[in-house]
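Researcher: I'd like a structural prediction for the single chain below. Treat it as a standalone chain; there are no partners to consider.
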Amino acid sequence: MSNNTIISTNFNFPGQKSVYKGKVRAVYHLENDILVMIATDRLSAFDVVMPKGIPYKGQILNQIATKMMAATEDIVPNWLLATPDPSVAVGYACEPFKVEMVIRGYMSGHAAREYKAGKRMLCGVAMPEGMKENDKFPAPIITPATKAEMGDHDEDISREDILAKGIVSKEDYIVLEKYTKALFQRGTEIAAKQGLILVDTKYEFGKTKDGKIVLIDEIHTPDSSRYFYAEGYQERQDKGEAQKQLSKEFVRQWLISNNFQGLEGQTVPEMTDEYITTVSDRYIELYENITGETFVKADISNIEERIEKNVVAYLESQK
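Model: Treating it as a single chain, here is the predicted structure.
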């Protein structure tokens, strides 16, 4: 591991019971139902983790998610307790719902690809005739996905199937829908203040031990959301031009142009140090555009040591 990025973690925190390693985050489960979630600098695209880390990426995602949780906690409760380190969030352990609540205000990405293929239903929701890519839907649509176990792609699923298969109870699902719409509305307002359009995003929820539904994981980050620049949006639509967007789509496009889409037999193209620096710079630009604040780089001379020190100090302070 290069010292200035963190791609793998191997901590042993006081009271640690287990650890789960996802594509980008490592989640340490401690006693008293406390979770320590570390946002690594790993970059995942097409469900494949790239071989090299991106400096500051974990810090950027963690800090955007923290700010967005603080900006929405008056409408939807969340799992977060503290952020003792720029790359770390600490919160309550929850039982995650096995669906991702994807909500779309515009016909972009996956929805646009399905539409181009002639489909007019997405996850049981009708899409109007006569739309073109990146047009605004008459009202935001919720298009859930089932959370895949490691490696497999998440799959579209309808509200009807979620209820019929008992993946989520009807009572809980109504709450998830209500929270998803409220968060998207707030996210749209926050984005508008920054001259941005929140195009689509996904939310994940869990249930605490006492049965409360809370927002978990990241929210309104460039990895979980797509943003357009509001200025010139309508002109670009009218001319049939591509929209200027803020998301990790630029990484996907670079991979596609280098003949990689995560398909069998394809190899990840070489990411030079120069290219990695440009990706890091783009993520910093995303952070500043989304939050409206200047990004302050944390000390990355030895990230593992920094994280361990900060987390242990926080846990000690809670005794």
